[in-house]
Design goal:
Structural class of chain A: mainly alpha
CATH architecture of the largest domain in chain B: Alpha-Beta Complex
Radius of gyration of chain A: 22 Å
Oligomer: heterodimer
Largest interface: A-B, 25 and 19 residues
CATH class of the largest domain in chain B: Alpha Beta
Helix content of chain A: 40-55%
Strand order of the largest sheet of chain B: 1-2-4-7-9-12
Number of domains of chain B: 2
CATH superfamily of the largest domain in chain B: 2-enoyl-CoA Hydratase, Chain A, domain 1
Strand content of chain B: 15-25%
Largest sheet of chain B: 6 strands, mixed
Strand content of chain A: 5-15%
Shape of chain B: globular
Radius of gyration of chain B: 24 Å
Distance between the termini of chain B: 26 Å
Shape of chain A: globular
Number of domains of chain A: 1
CATH superfamily of chain A: Ribonucleotide Reductase, subunit A
Largest sheet of chain A: 3 strands, antiparallel
Distance between the termini of chain A: 38 Å
Chain lengths: ~475, ~550
């Protein structure tokens, strides 16, 4: 059942060949997708063979196959977790009812909006990262970048499958528009702000995969609970792939820290910049920016939409099965609101606070990531400790966006903000320095000065394996 | 239900641009830009936040002030660009929490006022050499799109995301009741099936399809947004000629409404709470401008402008802040010669200022007869219902005329009664009154002077008691009126006042508003599990599924 039909133009485990209409629609979309990939995907590497994993099964063991492939030949396909015939809706007003195999008419527009918003992030990140191949610090990292890129492309396929299958002409139109919006384009930007931020250097890329892809994880976790079964099954499988993306960020930044600690230990009192390493406080400023920007992605703290999505069974909480009250009708959420320049504690109905509930889980997960990095400092005998900026810091969305807050979440005035902003967020000089380090290091077995080599290679292979045949 | 209008502070309708909290105004030659930037923390009463450029009465009072003021103060402007000051959102419409926590009466009054304001935008376009461009720099939903519909043209940003929408039916269980349904059908003449689809998609329609369906007129990308707005504004400005270089500044109408005796310079309102009446007396001055040049010279002090601005303010106060008052008793006093001389100026002068005054009088007359109060004109000793003064009497539900040769009651017509002040139905008040007898309307319209007896014979009076019966007749008429169901009276009056043809305006007030006000009372909207009640709360609405 879970096997993937590779004899088809579009690999899938959804028996696409039995639905000719859908198959034709997707086959019509495919050339546009490939065109998009060629113009907006990674530049200049489409003819190179890259050691990539390709999904071949959806089971927990051995779901992926690793081999050399040219990116445009990657078998982007449609893979859903197998259907559980007995699955019931796990939360909201439809709790306990059989999960929907078709879109309920009354929720069609909401669902489409949810799917389009999720889908839009997938091609956006590929666009944001398209130039990075030219400055990769190693073949290993170059390969990881491309792995992330092709899988974001596959996630787009997964969402487009849903749009084509369940949303008629509107869905097909939306699928077309997913290829028309462009990250950072002033005329037709991507829907969410973070996905229009430039991701110009590898440090930004690693922070992005750490923090922004982690938002993706929690959005997918919440959608994996959906009462709309095809969406839930799609998201579950996407989570399997997403884990690697966060691994790239978590370990990537970790290796930068490792390298800097090493340089600091060997050259006490010297400026690490002169030695081609990235100062830890500069790294912290990158972290501050990307953590805050990604925190925006959960939307308004108190939200009618989030209440609607929860009560209607479309979008749940992460790990809904660990909750006891799946209706969330009675409960309240203690929330620190920001009204007229004051922080005020208030209780809001739990359902309206679902964005904040999901954000709580996200913040906790980020904190674990920060601890991991601090252990690297600790092991290296370095006193520096990284912190996660407070969720109120540098927000562009939600109630805190109308004020200024420091890294600990204290309310500050504009003058204090201006006096400190270059200590908190990467300055132009910081970015220029990082850019100066961004020279490609693509010789087999070599790693750029600013990052330590990985602890181990891909899939048991050596660190100096030829992950990309240039 | 939390706060109500009754427990709120008195609603104020006077403001000035330097007091605006929600709009920014910029003038650049022939083009003015009105930017909606609602301060979320300045609601008209406590209890809600005005997020996402949502509006309440306070926001609309400023809008109405602007629309009135620009006509007098900035005759050099030919196009107003209405745009939003937020990123990605133009305006989210009327604030839902405000609606939910308002009394039914407040909701109805709020909707009526906002409807009038939008009609004033269209009135300015039709009669004041002013064009309006809705430059939608983000999503315009519900009342936000309705505001755009009141403008001459709509430009929507094409960012593959911003849409126009009517989420009322799918999300709130109510109607796009601020003219929305009427304007897509009758103004933009959008096909019925498309209107049906559009009005049920909460997220709305964007981009090319919005143009194809005529929901908007043009699209522009973000990168050339300001050029596109400028181009379209100049195109619209070119459709009309400039009125003048310098305008007339409107001073505030400061009427103290704290006591029960409100006194303007020309209009007095005496409230009798036990009787639930307000006696409204307009006293015309002896001295008056007799040439257009004098009128222009007097400007804001010109008696008729001042008098009708006072009347407007008093009508709004009575509507919004005096719901218990059932019946207005209107008297018009002072020399008939003043009416006659003024009406000649209003009718014959082609000066932009006299035109603006004429249009303002027209609007105040409409607002008067569109109020949910019973209206009696009282022609007793010393009354002079002449010309524009007679229009006020014709706007009333009844006219009581003292039939006494010695009583110095005079009535008469001028150009003002021959179509200068069309009603919402497009007809003059005489035409509407004598719908079956156009010749009578014509005869009265050309009778400059009538005494009580001839006025009664011609059919102008409802009752014409003599001195002996007068007091008692009037007392009975007042007491009887106050005893009827206020709802039945409102409905009855609204149905009888606008005989004759339908216009967009009569449809908005007579049809759309009536349906909306019905829905506002129904459990499916306002009940414990109604859609309006549940919106934004954790609970889903539950409908009584029987169609009524």
């Amino acid at each position: 059942m879970a096997g993937i039909d590779y004899s088809q133009k579009i690999p899938n485990n959804v028996d696409l060949s039995s639905d000719k209409r859908l198959q034709r629609a997707l086959e019509a979309w495919q050339p546009n997708y490939l065109e998009w990939w060629k113009t907006m995907g990674p530049t200049d590497f489409n003819t190179k063979e890259i050691y990539l994993r390709t999904a071949i099964d959806v089971g927990s063991d051995g779901w992926a196959h690793f081999d050399y492939v040219k990116m445009p030949d990657y078998r982007w396909g449609i893979f859903l977790q197998p259907r559980d015939e007995k699955r019931t809706i796990g939360f909201g007003d439809h709790f306990g009812e059989p999960a929907w195999q078709q879109v309920p008419g009354e929720y069609r527009n909401w669902l489409r909006r949810l799917i389009v918003t999720q889908a839009d992030t997938e091609p956006a990140s590929v666009e944001q990262q398209r130039l990075l191949g030219h400055t990769a610090p190693s073949l290993y990292d170059l390969r990881n970048l491309f792995q992330v890129n092709v899988e974001e492309g596959r996630h787009l396929w997964a969402m487009v499958y849903l749009l084509h299958t369940y949303f008629g002409k509107d869905g097909r139109d939306e699928a077309d528009e997913l290829l028309e919006r462009r990250s950072g384009n002033p005329d037709h930007p991507r829907i969410l702000g973070t996905f229009n931020e430039p991701c110009e250097d590898w440090l930004a890329f690693m922070c992005f995969t750490m923090f922004t892809d982690r938002d993706g994880k929690f959005q997918l976790l919440a959608l994996a609970e959906s009462g709309f079964d095809p969406l839930a099954r799609t998201c579950r499988f996407m989570l399997t792939e997403e884990a690697h993306h966060m691994f790239v960020g978590q370990t990537g930044v970790g290796r930068v820290i490792e390298r800097t600690c090493d340089v600091m230990a060997k050259n006490p009192g010297k400026d690490v910049r002169a030695l081609g390493a990235i100062p830890l406080d500069l790294l912290q400023r990158y972290i501050n920016f990307w953590a805050a920007s990604s925190t925006d992605l959960y939307g308004a703290e108190i939200s009618s939409n989030s209440a609607n999505f929860f009560r209607s069974g479309l979008k749940g909480r992460a790990y809904e099965d660990k909750q006891t009250d799946h209706l969330a009708l009675e409960g309240t959420y203690r929330f620190v609101n920001f009204i007229e320049n004051r922080l005020v504690s208030e209780d809001v109905p739990l359902r309206n606070a679902m964005n904040e509930v999901l954000r709580d889980e996200y913040v906790k997960d980020n904190e674990r990531g920060i601890e991991y990095w601090n252990r690297i400092c600790e092991r290296a005998g370095n006193d520096f400790r990284f912190t996660l900026p407070h969720r109120r810091f540098n927000r562009k969305i939600g109630v805190y966006s109308s004020g200024r807050f420091d890294l600990e979440g204290n309310l500050i005035d504009e003058a204090t903000w201006n006096a400190n902003v270059d200590r908190w967020l990467a300055s132009a000089a910081d970015k220029a320095f990082v850019k100066s380090l961004m020279v490609p290091c693509l010789e087999r077995g070599k790693t750029a000065s600013w990052i330590a080599p990985p602890a181990k290679g891909i899939q048991g292979l050596a660190v100096d394996y030829e992950y990309v045949r240039l | 239900m939390a706060a109500t209008a009754a427990t709120s502070p008195r609603v104020r309708f006077q403001t000035t641009p330097d007091q605006y909290r929600h709009w920014k105004v910029a003038y650049d030659g022939e083009i003015a830009t009105l930017t909606m930037a609602v301060d979320p923390h300045s609601p008209q009463r406590e209890g809600y936040e005005l997020k996402l450029n949502s509006y309440d009465l306070g926001v609309d009072v400023e809008l109405a002030d602007f629309v009135q003021r620009i006509r007098f103060e900035h005759p050099e402007v030919r196009c107003v660009v209405v745009t939003g000051g937020l990123d990605r959102v133009f305006c989210a419409g009327a604030n839902i929490v405000m609606l939910r926590t308002s009394t039914h009466g407040f909701k109805v009054n709020f909707c009526k006022y906002t409807n009038e304001t939008r009609l004033y935008i269209e009135d300015a376009s039709a009669h004041s050499n002013l064009r309006f461009l809705a430059a939608l720099n983000g999503t315009a939903s519900g009342g936000g799109y309705e505001l755009a519909l009141a403008c001459d043209k709509i430009l929507l940003v094409d960012d593959r995301n911003s849409a126009v929408s009517f989420p009322e039916v799918p999300l709130l269980g109510v109607l796009p009741g601020t003219g929305g349904l009427t304007r897509i059908a009758d103004k933009r003449k959008i096909r019925r099936d498309r209107s049906d689809v559009f009005s049920t998609i909460a997220e709305g329609i964007k981009g090319k399809r919005a143009v194809e369906w005529k929901l908007v007129d043009r699209l522009a990308p973000l990168s050339r947004w300001s050029e596109a707005v400028g181009e379209m504004a100049r195109e619209l400005a070119a459709e009309v000629s400039k009125k003048a270089e310098r305008g007339v500044k409107l001073d505030p109408i400061a009427i103290d409404c704290e006591s029960d005796d409100w006194n303007g310079q020309y209009v007095r309102c005496q409230i009798d709470r036990s009787q639930r009446t307000a006696e409204l007396t307009l006293t015309v001055p002896e001295k008056h401008a007799s040439t257009a040049a004098q009128a222009v010279e007097q400007g804001v002090a010109w008696w008729i402008l001042r008098a009708f601005r006072e009347l407007d303010e008093i009508i709004l106060q009575l509507r919004m802040n005096e719901p218990e008052i059932a019946l207005l008793l209107l008297r018009v006093k002072g020399p008939a010669a003043t009416w006659r001389a003024t009406d000649i100026l209003l009718a014959e002068s082609s000066h932009w200022f006299t035109n603006e005054v004429r249009q303002l009088v027209k609007r105040v007359l409409k607002r008067f007869e569109n109020s949910a109060k019973s209206l009696y004109a009282i022609a007793d000793r010393g009354s002079n219902f002449v010309g524009t003064g007679l229009e006020l009497a014709l706007a009333c539900d009844r006219l009581y005329l003292l039939s006494e040769p010695e009583a110095e009651v005079s009535l008469g017509t001028t150009q003002a009664n021959r179509g200068m002040f069309p009603m919402a139905n497009g007809l003059s008040r005489l035409q509407t009154r004598f719908l079956a007898e156009p010749e009578t309307a014509e005869q009265i319209a050309t009778t400059p002077t009538m005494d009580a007896a001839s006025a009664a014979t011609l059919g102008l009076s409802t009752f014409a008691p003599d001195e002996i019966d007068w007091d008692d007749e009037l007392r009975l008429a007042i007491e009887e009126r106050a005893a009827f169901s206020p709802d039945a009276l409102t409905g009855m009056e609204a149905n009888l006042r606008f005989a004759g043809p339908e216009t967009m305006e009569t449809k908005i007030f007579g049809r759309l508003s009536a349906w909306q006000n019905w829905i506002f009372q129904r459990p499916n909207a306002a009940g414990e599990r109604g859609a309006l009640t549940c919106y934004g709360t954790p609970e889903a609405p539950e409908f009584d599924t029987s169609r009524t």
